[in-house]
């Protein structure tokens, strides 16, 4: 696991190679195995492979969602916030499970934030995504995880360059 964590960098350019169905199944299993507060399991996941829909998702925000354009797979992570007050945490855990599982399968990936972001002056990114994918009113969308074979080289950050001063011992 530490090697997967070391190797993971956000990937924003993907090759045209599709993600194999066996790998998609493993990503789905990982999402469903993510721990949730009080086992509420209030999350839902949409695995989007339809090219036109992915192009539409790439326009969810003026900045920071365009990377979806070349992704062969986009996983939309959402939850019913009436089922748990910890929906943001639960969806965040599921998002990182998806990212690390993708990394372990040799797939590049990147988190695209939807919660709290604007599509334009009139519409939130969440409303835009919900309308494009027919997501019911009761769902809150947290993120979209872009996944595919990487078309870019990203350097592993050496351990000595990490912000070790963020680590405290016993007291702040
Ligand atoms: C909560 C969260 C939201 C993010 N939102 C976006 C996003 O909308 N668009 C994007 O290109 N990257 C997004 N990222 C990726 C970060 O920019 C990236 O993880 C950070 O710059 C560190 O780089 P690294 O992932 O290569 O280590 C997000 C990451 C997190 C954890």
The helix tally amounts to 5
Which molecules are bound besides the chains? flavin mononucleotide
**What's the number of extended β-strand segments?**
4
CATH superfamily of the domain at 43-152, please? NADH Oxidase
From the 3D coordinates, which CATH architecture of the domain at 43-152 would you assign? 3-Layer(aba) Sandwich
**Which CATH class of the domain at 43-152 is shown?**
Alpha Beta
Please tell me the overall pLDDT. 98
Task: Report what the structure shows.
With 172 residues, this protein is α+β, with helices and mostly antiparallel strands. It has a domain of 110 residues: 3-Layer(aba) Sandwich (NADH Oxidase), CATH 3.40.109. 30% of the residues lie in helices and 17% in strands. The chain contains 5 helices and 4 strands. A 4-stranded antiparallel β-sheet has the order 1-2-4-3, with helices on both faces. The longest helix has 18 residues. The radius of gyration is 17 Å and the shape is globular. It starts with a helix and ends in a 24-residue tail after the last strand. The model has no long low-confidence stretch (mean pLDDT 98). It binds flavin mononucleotide. Flavin mononucleotide binds next to strand 3.
